[in-house]
TrEMBL record:
Protein name from the UniProt record: SCNNA protein
Catalyzed reactions: Na(+)(in) = Na(+)(out)
Molecular-function GO term, any one: ligand-gated sodium channel activity
Membrane-protein topology: Multi-pass membrane protein
Highest taxon, organism lineage: Eukaryota
Native organism: Turnix velox (Little buttonquail)
């Protein structure tokens, strides 16, 4: 409800589980928004060895400098491989699973927050270089105890923009100031737009998104009614009543990835004992229960080419003139010579009329 306890926002859930998750997430954000005062999460980055037992690309072991760490509000510690795309080590030389990225992941559930997410596994997302990954919108799950193979095919979309539709090259011509230090994407613009509106309307920012300069995150100790303001605004955003979708155009050039997956049980019944033993000796793996707590994923290019989708004008100037000439000839049966003769006849008629009028004037 609002600050006076009235004008409450109601929402109906079809499942009690969904209602409990939403209730917990709301209180979780209130707690996490106060953490920067107590502890700086970025100063306590986890090492990738806590999550990845084995990493290989094109048959070569990955290096410590091949990934960057960032903290996600819901999924916790996340790692991005080849974020800049400038390292020759990550150049794809051959298609196929043996030449892709192969990972053995730690998928233990003992550290999971039970009411924050009911999914067991690892979240993976394939995205372009220097692009902010929005895992809650585009990521997919890797199931524990399963070997997942992911074949990717790149698509490149080029939009015309200008008079043919609105798009932006790098976001510099967009009125919304991006809160992410990466390249422009539609999701980054929408989240930034919503955060700016929330700071302006509610006086504080939503914990899931970065903050504008000088703002602070919402929590019920400082802003007891911030939830009422947030849910009202978010409902308007979902119903397209905010102008964020009008202010955020699509990129003029965008790389997309088509994904096809296959799964198999891993490790198999015959090999699980020696696989677990090898991981225990090499990586300090310790299985405390019988449930599956490891997963394997292989990401590779299916083909070393990409599909380009380019927008082009349906009717160009040359095609327009050609169509007009064809229609003129069809309906009037004329050609260029006929048009010139008609033009000459009009000029001759005009000159004769002028001469006739001149003679009559002189006669008078």
């Amino acid at each position: 409800c609002n600050a006076t306890g009235g004008n409450c926002f109601y929402k109906t859930y079809s499942s009690g589980m969904d209602a409990i998750l939403e209730w917990y997430r709301f209180h979780y954000m209130n707690i996490m928004s106060q953490l920067p005062v107590i502890i700086n999460i970025s100063d306590h980055e986890e090492q990738i060895e806590d999550m990845v037992y084995s990493c290989q690309y094109d048959g070569e072991p990955c290096r410590p400098s091949d990934y960057i760490h960032f903290h996600h509000p819901v999924f916790g510690s996340c790692y991005t491989f080849n974020s800049q795309g400038t390292d020759p080590f990550w150049t794809a030389t051959k298609p196929g699973a043996p030449y892709g990225l192969s990972l053995i992941l730690k998928a233990e559930q003992k550290d999971h927050i039970p009411l924050l997410s009911t999914v067991a596994g690892v979240k993976v997302m394939i995205h372009n270089h220097n692009q902010t990954p929005f895992l809650e919108h585009e990521g997919f799950d890797i199931r524990p105890g399963i070997a997942t193979t992911i074949g990717i095919q790149q698509d490149e979309v080029n939009r015309l923009g200008g008079n043919y539709g609105r798009c932006t090259t790098d976001g510099s011509d967009v009125n919304v100031k991006l809160l992410y230090n990466n390249s422009y994407t539609l999701q980054a613009c929408l989240h930034s737009c919503f955060q700016h509106i929330m700071v302006r309307k509610c006086g504080c920012g939503y914990y899931y998104y970065p903050l504008p300069p000088g703002a602070e995150y919402c929590n019920y100790n400082k802003q007891p009614a911030w939830g009422h303001c947030f849910y009202q605004l978010y409902n308007r955003l979902r119903n397209h009543h905010l102008n964020c979708f009008d202010q955020c155009p699509k990129p003029c050039r965008e790389s997309l990835y088509k994904v096809s997956t296959g799964t198999a049980k891993w490790p198999s019944t015959k090999s699980q004992d020696w696989v677990r033993q090898a991981l225990r000796h090499q990586n300090g793996y310790n299985s405390t229960s019988n449930r599956s707590d490891i997963a394997k994923v292989t990401i590779f290019y299916k083909q070393l080419n990409y599909q380009s989708v380019n927008e082009s004008p349906l009717l160009s100037e040359n095609l327009l003139l050609s169509s007009m000439g064809s229609q003129w000839s069809l309906w009037f049966g004329s050609s260029v010579l006929s048009v010139v003769e008609m033009f000459e006849l009009l000029i001759d008629t005009l000159v004769l009329c002028l001469l006739f009028c001149y003679q009559r004037l002189r006669a008078k």
